[in-house]
Amino acid sequence: MDARKRRRLAYRRCCGKRARQGFQLWVALPPEMENIASEARYLGREHFQSHGPARVILGHLGEAASKVPAPATMNYLDVALKKGEKWRYDPPDKHTVAWIAVHRGKLATPEIVDKGELAVFEESNGALEIEALEDTGFILGSAVKHPHELALGNYSVHTSQAALDQGERKITEIGKRLRAEGRI
Fold first, then answer.
1. What is the pLDDT of residues 100-148, one digit of tens each?
2. Nearest alpha carbon to residue 78 among 100, 62, 107, 106
3. pTM of the predicted model as reported, rounded to 2 decimal places
4. What is the pLDDT of residues 171-182, one digit of tens each?
């Protein structure tokens, strides 16, 4: 059996035949948390509570709350709506920053947002009214506005240039270690 067939077989044993979809979220953490050890978790949908059409990945919505540790100042929801369905999101107090990223279908906010597009809402604590123009899936994030100017790097986002430099040095060290171990 050639190497490609072995990899496909190993993937099927590990992951099944269904395609998987994942999302990566970069979060500007408070200064006291931004350079702590990183952590990766790969969790299936069964690990998350729902409220109506929304699965709560981070934060809370209604009685549903995420078990993933994160600052209480943000919500990250995975929402599924059927064609013609309408949904209203009332952000928590002080959540004045919100965005959506459509991964399936098309919706109106009232502006149309299509699959593959990201829409950032004007700063407000007002409710968001969303209508599915097709069967639609999207990620919605809302948060308290970050009190710092952001320093953006190639691999991370931080509250200051000094914190960004520290974080990027750590990424370089991890890369060197993984190459030395033959893992990349």
1. 999 999 999 989 999 999 999 999 999 999 999 999 999 999 999 988 8
2. 100
3. 0.78
4. 889 899 999 999
Please check whether residue 112 is in contact with residue 125, taking contact to mean a CB–CB distance below 8 angstroms: no
Buried b (16+ CB within 10 A) or exposed e, 55-93: bbbbbebeebebeeebeebbbbbbbbbeeeeebebebbe
Beta carbons of 136 and 125 less than 8 angstroms apart: no
φ, ψ at 115 (rounded to 5°):
-50, 135
Spatial contact of 125 and 108, defined as CB atoms under 8 Å apart: no
Q: Identify the H or E element spanning 7.
A: helix 3-15
Count of Cβ atoms closer than 10 Å to residue 117 Cβ: 14
Dist. CA 62–CA 181, nearest whole Å: 46
* Per-residue burial over 134-146, b = 16 or more CB atoms within 10 Å of its CB, e = otherwise: eebbbbbbbbbeb
CA distance 156 to 159: 10
> What is the rounded distance in angstroms from the CA atom of residue 159 to the CA atom of residue 135?
38
